[in-house]
Amino acid sequence: MLDLLNLIGKVIEELRSSIELFEASKHEDGLTQLSSVVLKIDHYLERSDDDLLLKLVPIDRASLGKRLKAVKGELVSVIESFSSTAP
Fold this sequence. Notes:
Elements: H1 4-23, H2 27-47, H3 52-56, H4 61-85
């Protein structure tokens, strides 16, 4: 089970890797990495009701869901932007 803390850690790691790939002009690999982040967010959102951390701490789940969806939306925009300009 992917909990919120693990999601944050994995997303940060993959975003860092994606930036490095874009800087190295490996745009396809960078886009793949960003797509992986989007999938992780989707996977978490589907199973967030089972996250024990959210049961232990007072986090507004609706607000958390909206924020994660906003991050996902921004990443999808970046992916679409780079995909449309790719040779």
